[in-house]
Amino acid sequence: MVGSPSGPRGMVETRVRAVDRIDTGPRFSEADAIRLNRLYRGTDTLEMLSGVLRDGLAGDVAVVSSFGAESAVLLHLVSRIDPSLPVLFLETGKHFPETLAYRDLLIERLGLTNVINLTPDPADLEKKDETGLRWSYDPDGCCEIRKVKPLAKAIGGFDASITGRKSFQSSTRANLPRFEIDNSDAQGRLKINPLIDWSAEDIAAYIAEHDLPPHPLVAEGYPSIGCSPCTSKVAEGEDARSGRWKGWDKTECGIHVPGAPDNDGELPPGFDPVF
To answer: Does 142 qualify as catalytic in the annotation?
Structure first.
């Protein structure tokens, strides 16, 4: 901004206003994840979570929970530190009734005060899954509508998420670190996996020590529990997650089969669902 001439020589006084800049870069980098993994190497899980949450090392954080077979462990750990921490639950409309009852039970037992139910966009359901049968011929598309998109919309307001993934659950999770970068978009959110190095025995021991209620379907042969149409019982000796999307080339929510057709919710010609 230019002022009026001043001084004996009529010098022009010039004031330069600082330019406001909005930082659009990633929240965290791979280097940040590596630093945190080194910082908390060998640290007890509760101590690590306490440090990250209470010291604000990860910014605004939310837990992503399925309220599934082993969810009580992570939720109990979080409740010991901050029961008001946001917990995001994907209410897909396809859950077992037992899962919804279990969610409500854990909320009450653990004193969780900020569980947020994420639901699919009604417009997406009307356009792409009007029959509610998309899971039966395009499970990737069903997950996209009912899980991936609602979570992406909600998680955008956070700097980091906490997951309950464990290395023993499947080969796709065997080498995950405690801290990693969420590559689902360019935001550079931190993804924290506090239980990644816990064994099945560790989980069982923690549940017993703290008298945590089990998911009622575990005793019926479901060690990994998702939406009811895409969850099957698991045979002894199989991966815990082998009952998810059984018969499909799919192992995780949000991982799409290359070339999968998008019929915008229309049933393929001659499709005959088998229930």
So the answer is: no
Q: For 85, what's the count of Cα atoms within 13 Å in the CB-facing half-sphere?
A: 29
Reported pTM: 0.79
Q: For residue 237, which of 193, 200, 198 has the smallest C-alpha distance?
A: 200
d(CA 272, CA 93): 22
Helix 97-110 to helix 71-81 angle (10° resolution) is: 20
What range defines the domain where residue 47 resides? 30-213
pLDDT in tens, 86-110: 999 999 999 999 999 999 999 999 9
Give the count of domains, the chain.
Answer: 1
Strands (E), the chain: 2-6, 11-14, 61-64, 87-90, 115-118, 160-162, 179-181, 190-192
Q: Which two tokens stand for residue 3?
A: 């002022």
**142, 143, 227, 253: which one is catalytic?**
253
Q: What is the CATH number of the domain that holds 92?
A: 3.40.50.620
